[in-house]
Amino acid sequence: MDIATSAGLLAGVVVLCTLIMMGGDLRMFVDLHAFIVIFGGAFAATLIHFPLSSILHGIPLGAKYAFTLRRVSQRELVDEIARLAEVARKQGPIGLEKVETDDPFLAKGIRMVADGYDMDFIRDNLERDRDNFCTHLDEGQKVYRAVGDCAPAFGMVGTLIGMVQMFANMTDPSKLGPYMAVALLATFYGAAVSNLFCLPIADKLQLKLHDEDINRTLIIDGILMIRDAKSPTLVREMLLAYLPERHRHTEDEAELAPA
Prior knowledge:
- The chain has 259 residues and is an all-alpha fold.
- It is 81% helix and 0% strand.
């Protein structure tokens, strides 16, 4: 689980609620007009941007991976794949059947090697799996970014509608305050939805997309080298190229350090 996403969202809600409670109560900030113009307008605009199937698929998928997808470092993957290469060298590919791993993509590759699949088949299958997963993540982040871009604009639309209603009732001073509050709440809703939820989720999904693309490409290369019966040392050296330069040096120094 990605604790940072949940913690950040909770902290943002707490900050907003605290500021609201310091000057009034939450009921002052609940308005159906602002809710309809923000969520209805943003959803309508997003429907124009994307097919309905992409929205219905992208929104839950994006929320799922923004909150639950655990980030795995390239260092951890290199160590894990080198360990698998050691198992394959000592016990043969059949020995990989008893190996357990937390990464479903890596587990799939191990199973293919243990079952003796052809190298080209393994490569094509894993690359297709990687590309489909990254495409779905990209679809999710684009949907959230579109909603985040539309929400402030529709907040301004709601504000303009509220101001028109306010000016249309200038003869009744008792209505000026409520209409002005409605107008400002639309802007507030739009800014909060966009900057606290949608755009941060889109950015988080973009980072996860980049990480997953690198991690799964690293796994594919490692699985293919294990299938080709490369030595664990060679597997590790080849996969260290995925690590940042300073991390590669740290790994080398750790290997050379006396026990």
